[in-house]
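Exercise 7. Predict the joint structure of the components listed below.
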Amino acid sequence: MDNTRRTFLKIAGLSVLGLGAGPIVDIIALGASSEFEPPAGARVGKRWAMVVDHKKCLKAEEGCKDCAAACHTVHNVPTIDNPKHEVKWIWPASFEEGFPGQADKYMGEYIGTSLKDRKILILCNHCDNPPCVRVCPVKATVRRDDGIVMMDYHRCIGCRFCMAACPYGARSLNWRDPRPFIKTELNRDYPTRMKGVVEKCSFCDERLAKGLNPACVDACKEKALIFGDLEDPDSEIRHVLHANPSIQRKPHLGTRPEVYYIL
Amino acid sequence: MYNSGKIIIGIIIFLGLVTYPFWRNVGKAATPLKLEVGTQEKQCVEPTAYMKSSHMKLLSQWRDEAVRNGNRVYASSTGKKYIISLQNTCMNCHVKKTEFCDRCHNSLDVTPKCWGCHIAPQEQEQQAAARTDN
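Solution:
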């Protein structure tokens, strides 16, 4: 009897090992026959991030919206006047909107101009710990390995959980068909969105795939927007962050936002 | 059975009417769909038979890889590499969307939502341009 039990246990142990080996073999086999690859000239990063240098931004003419205009043209973002329906990827807002409760009365003096009348730039923070990704019931928004919080518009069901979860107001729902409201010339290389889909900044993943900078970065004449890989110690963005103290929007919420502001 | 004569005649007339389309078309071959691709290219991304049966699966695979994983290049079984893009790769060859995509989708009564967001090629303008050239 002893002997049979022994063999039984041996076989049982081996079977369990075999069951565990199946998925591993699958992964190795899949990896070998991959049909998909990243494009050749693409910019590869481990943690894409952006710095908004308001010292430089303030040098621009008052009311400059070059970055927003470039972004909204490239991505076919509609211009809807009704603020309840409007769609925005990057836009100027008051300091109080971006950093509520953080402005003291001497801050304006520090920046050299009154913050009350000047705007700061607001866009998706591409958080390291993105609440929008956690709440999405259909996984329409994902955090990619390079840090970009990406929207898959194909999957979005328009439930707006992500909009409720995002503490930065970076997301907009298309309450109506956006196509009639695209006031700029239609960019035929990029899709539009449809009614009932949430949209936001994507750090121009389609331009990174071609080796380009995000559209807003290229559009800024004052070079106030710096885009780069935080994991690369020699990148410009790391040098800029090393040389200047910066703040983030609502860091106490634990979302680990990856857009840094130099004031 | 009361009024059996009228009922039986009625049933025969009813069956005749219902089956009329079958009688009318019996023996005739169904007219095949005429699809116009609008390109000189001989070969699609994958062999034609595969594209006919499974282009929808390929497209959703493309979509997931490009959007979610950033893999925007597809290495085809034909040995060529393609940029993954419905708007900029597929529609470069399939310029005649109404005479290719729509014609087949309509006859099969499927309504894919691609064109709610992706921008279709400008067919009217192409035709207008062709007319002015002639």
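Discussion. Chain B has a mean pLDDT of 88.
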